[in-house]
């Protein structure tokens, strides 16, 4: 039965993603907000399929920590799940993403239209300058900035490796940074589309106010995200153990 559910979900997910990519093509010639709405619809229906076919639901904790104004959201990155969830969690996020993703048919076109923050990971100092310039423009437009501070997906329990990009944004933008922890890696593998039944928990943690020294900020961000992620992984592992019993 698990294999059948996985097969049905993959058929659903890729068919749905292809369909909305095709149907929404005229939006590329329309105002940007139309494409943003398409991203939200894609995310919401994808999560509907996850729940109905796989039995994978989610819970958002810490909504009270969402600020009213501009902020940087630093998300733990374990799976494809949170790249979808950001379009439900936040309104019109400007996500920091690698340039290679623009070459993905469909997704790359819409990401470019949505004015995501694209970086060249081989550009070093010039890439950081471009990152800050783009982020300032998005913040001035009132959009939340989303960054995965480790730059890539990590296995549950894998040693953290936080990159300097998030510190560069924090130092330049003078807005709060919101750490976000999750346990998605237990339920949706780092590679592929093979989710399993359960409940992913994503937790929005209290803001780190602007003005901290760079090293202090980086340590605080890592400590908060990793401590909360460890707690959520333990909770998710217990959930899976109960389901298997």
Features:
245 residues; alpha/beta; Glycerol-3-phosphate (1)-acyltransferase; 7 helices; 48% helix; 14% strand
Question: Mind explaining what this structure looks like?
Answer:
This protein is globular. The mean pLDDT is 92. Helix 2 crosses helix 3 (81-89). By secondary structure, it is an alpha/beta fold. Helix content is 48%, strand content 14%.
Distance between the termini: 17 Å
Tally of domains: 1
How much helix is in the residues? 40-55%
Secondary-structure content class: alpha/beta
Q: What is the fold-level CATH name, i.e. the topology?
A: Glycerol-3-phosphate (1)-acyltransferase
TL;DR?
The chain has 7 helices and 7 strands; from the N terminus they run ααββαβαβαβαββα. The chain is α/β, with parallel strands linked by helices and 245 residues long.
SSE inventory with pairings:
Blueprint: H1 2-23, H2 32-54, E1 56-61, E2 72-75, H3 81-89, E3 94-98, H4 107-113, E4 117-119, H5 125-140, E5 145-147, H6 165-173, E6 177-182, E7 198-204, H7 214-244
Parallel strand pairs: 1-7, 2-5, 2-6, 3-4, 3-5
Antiparallel strand pairs: 6-7
């Amino acid at each position: 039965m698990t294999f059948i559910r996985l097969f049905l979900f993959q058929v659903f997910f890729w068919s749905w993603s292809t369909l909305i990519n095709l149907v929404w093509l005229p939006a590329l010639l329309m105002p940007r907000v139309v494409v943003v709405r398409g991203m939200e619809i894609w995310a919401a229906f994808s999560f509907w399929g996850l729940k109905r076919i796989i039995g994978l639901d989610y819970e958002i904790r810490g909504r009270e920590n969402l600020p009213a104004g501009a902020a940087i959201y630093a998300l733990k990155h374990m799976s494809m799940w949170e790249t979808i969830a950001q379009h439900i969690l936040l309104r019109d996020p400007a996500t920091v993403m690698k340039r290679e993703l623009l070459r993905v048919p469909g997704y790359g076109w819409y990401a470019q239209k949505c004015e995501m923050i694209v970086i060249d990971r081989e550009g070093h100092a010039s890439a950081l300058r471009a990152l800050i310039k783009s982020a300032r423009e998005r913040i001035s437009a009132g959009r939340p900035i989303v960054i995965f501070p480790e730059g890539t997906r990590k296995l549950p329990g894998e040693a953290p490796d936080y990159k300097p990009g998030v510190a560069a944004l924090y130092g330049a933008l003078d807005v709060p940074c919101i750490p976000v922890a999750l346990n998605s890696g237990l339920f949706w593998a780092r590679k592929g589309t093979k989710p399993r039944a359960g409940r992913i928990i994503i937790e929005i943690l209290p803001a780190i106010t602007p003005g901290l020294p760079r090293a202090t900020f980086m340590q605080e961000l890592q400590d908060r995200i990793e401590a909360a992620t460890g707690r959520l992984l333990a909770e998710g592992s217990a959930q899976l153990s109960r389901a298997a019993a």
